[in-house]
Amino acid sequence: MVGVSDWQGSGQAPAGGPPAQVGRPLLSLTLAAMMDDVHAHSGAVYLLAPREPVLEMAVMAGLPRAFAAPWERVGLSAPIPVAEAVRERRLIWVSGEEQMAGRYPRIAVVLPYPFALAALPVTTENRAYGAVFVTWPGSHPPELSDRERDHLTAACDRLALRLERAAKEHRPVHPEPDLLAPAAATTVAGTLSTVEAARMVARLPYGLCALDLHGRISYANTATAELLGVPASGLLGTQLWAAVPWLNDPVYEDRYRAALLSQQVTSFVALRPPGDWLSFRLYPSTNGLSVRISRARAVTEMTRAEPQRGDSTPRLVTISHLLSLASALTEAAGVQDVVQLVADEIAPAVGSQALVLLGTRAGRLHVLGHRGYPEAHVVERFDGMPLSAQTPGTHALNSGVPAFFDSRQQLERIYPSRKTTPDGMAAWAYLPLIASGRPVGTCVLAYAQPHTFPADERAVLTSLGGLIAQALERALLYDAKLQLAHGLQAALLPHSLPSLPSIEAAARYLPATQGMDIGGDFYDLVASPGRAAAVIGDVQGHNVTAAGLMGQIRTAVRAYTTVGQPPEEVMRSTNRLLIDLGTDLFASCLYLRLDPAREVAVMARAGHPPPLLRRPDGKVRVLDLAGGPLLGIDASATYPTTEVPLTPGSVLALYTDGLIESPGVDIEDALSDLGRRLAESGDQPLDALADSLVQHGRTSAQERPDDVALLLLRARPPD
Hints:
Elements: E1 3-4, H1 26-38, E2 42-48, E3 54-61, E4 73-75, H2 81-88, E5 92-94, H3 97-103, H4 105-108, E6 115-123, E7 128-137, H5 146-168, E8 179-180, H6 194-202, E9 207-211, E10 217-220, H7 222-228, H8 232-235, H9 240-243, H10 250-262, E11 266-272, E12 276-285, E13 288-295, H11 297-304, H12 319-329, H13 335-349, E14 354-361, E15 364-371, H14 377-380, H15 392-399, E16 403-405, H16 408-414, E17 427-435, E18 438-447, H17 455-492, E19 503-510, E20 520-528, E21 531-539, H18 544-562, H19 567-580, E22 587-595, E23 600-606, E24 612-614, E25 620-622, E26 641-645, E27 651-655, H20 667-681, H21 686-694, H22 697-700, E28 708-715
Antiparallel strand pairs: 1-8, 2-3, 2-7, 3-4, 5-6, 6-7, 9-10, 9-13, 11-12, 12-13, 14-15, 14-18, 16-17, 17-18, 19-28, 20-21, 21-22, 22-23, 23-26, 24-25, 24-27, 27-28
Helix pairs in contact: 1-5, 3-17, 12-13, 13-17, 17-18, 18-19
C-alpha cells in the first residue's frame, strides 16, 4: 500500500528477523504492515520524548505530514486521541466526523471531514514508548471489527517489545522519513500505451488533471489549460490553488484535503473572472487525485442576473477562519465575554442572526446571555425552566447530541409546544456544550430564514460547540472565583467609616484589573475617646493569601490601638506579628494617631508612600517622614514617629502606590500631579474629592495593574 519515500536503505533484513540495527526503518515498516493488515489509508507513529511528557511524531504514512502538522508534538495531557491512548493505556476509537467534533474539537475544527480513527498506545507492562494512529475513509463501518482491533493491538505490542529491546541494547530509535503511496502507473490497466492514453485524454471536451498527495499537478490535458487560463507548462509541478490566482482561497485547498482524508468524491464550483463558473470534481485514491473540470453552465446563467443585494449570508467558514475563532475564544475571561465573542465572531461567520447561551444550575436552565432578539422576554421566559422539560434546548443538554432544524415546521413537528412560544426565527442549531466530559450548557444559533445544514456544516458547528464549551467552562470558573474574591475583599475592608466629631473621612478602593481582582491594600479608621487612629497599608501580592494576611494585619492594628499602644509600638507589634506568622510576604503601612484637641497628628511609617497634607490656604505639602523598613523583614526594627500640625480645614491624603504608579511614568511626576489635583479640588466635599482623585486617567484605565486604596481625612473646627 505504501512505500518508503526519500529513505536510503541499508539492505538489512526486515522487521521480525534478527535484532534491529541502527538505521533500520523499524517504525516505517511496522506502520506500513499495520496499515496493510487493516486496510487503513493513513497513519503515524509517535515516540515519547526523553525526559518530557510529550509525544513526537516519528513517521507518517499515506498522507502528507501537513495534514497532521498541528499535532507533530503532543503533550500527554492534551485532549488528543494519541495522548489519551497513552494516558489510559487503551485503544481509542473515533467512528466519524460527528464523534470527532464532540470528543476532540481541536482536531475536528482543523479537519472537519468524514474519516474514522483508531489510536493505540505502544506500551509494555512497565513502560510507555509512544502511540500509533491509523485512519480510514468515512465509509468505514461505525464500529471497529474484532479482526481490526486484534491486528492493531498485536502490532503495537510487537512494536513495544522491539522498542524495549532497542532501549536495553542502547540503540536509539530516531524519526524516519515519511511514507507515501507508490507512483501512479504509466499505462491504463496495461492495455493502452502512455502516448495513446494521453491522446485519448486530450480529445476529451472537459479538463482532466492529476494531483499527487501534496496537491501538485503531475498531468493536465489541453482543455484544463484552456479552462484555467494558464499554460500547461505553468501548471505542471505546482499546486492547483497556487498556480491559478483566482483559486488561491483556503476553501479550495480545503476540498483537496477533504477528498484525500475522506477518500470520497468531492466537488466545488469557482468563479473564473469576470463571470465564468467552473465545476471541479475530485476523485481520490491512495496515491493522489484525479480532477475533472467543466463549465458550470447553470451557475453561470444564474449569476448573469443582477445579484440580490439583500442576500448577505456568508458561506461556511474556512479552516483559517475557524482557527481565528478558536483563538478568539481563548481570550474570553468571563461568561459575558464568551457571549459577546460568539455574537461578534461566530454567529456572523455561520450566517446566524441571533443566539442564546444557556447554562444549567440546580436542575434548571439559565439564560447566560443572548443577542439578536429585539424583545428580551422572548428568550428570558426560558430562564429557570426545569431540565426535564421537553424542549430542544434541554434535550441537547441532556443527550449531548446536537439538533438541527431547517424550518419552523420541522421544529414544531418534533416539539409541538414551540407553536405557543415563537421567537420569530425560521431555523435553529442547538449545540450541546460538553467540557471535561460533562454538559455545561447549550448554544442556540437561530436563523431568520429557513436554512439547510449539510453534513460538513453540521460537523463545523459541532466542533465550534466544543470550543465554546471549553471557553464557557473556563468563564464560569473565572466568574465564580471573581465572585468569591469580591466577597472576600468586601468582608475584609470596613463596610463604613465611623462618624467622628472633629474628623471627616472618606475612603475609596479600586481592585486591580489583572488577576482575580483581589489584593492586599487596606485602610481603617478606629475611634477612641477624644482621639482616633487611621491606618493604610499594602500587603505584597494580588491573591487570596495577600488578602488573608491583610485581614490579619488590619485586625492586629485595631487591637493594638484599642489597648492604647502609642503609634511606634503599634508598628513594632504588628511587625513582630507578621514575622511570627512565618509568611514570605511583606507589607507597607502608615499609621496616624489623630488628636483634634491639640490639632496634631502623630505618624509612624513602614516603607509606605508619603502622605499629602493640604493646608487650609490650599497649599499641598508632601510629608516625607522618617520611618522604618517594611513590616515582616526585621524583628528588631523600630519605627520613629513625627508630629504634624492638623489645623481645622486641613486635608490629609493617605494612599497606596497603585494611585501614583503606572508604567512609563516617573514616580516623582506622578506624586507632583496628585498634589496639584489635591490643591485644585481640595475644597470640594470629601466624597467628591475622593472620586476625583481615583477617577484620574491613570487609575481609572481599564488595565489597572495594582490595587488602589485612598483614605482622606479633613480636620473640622471644634463644635
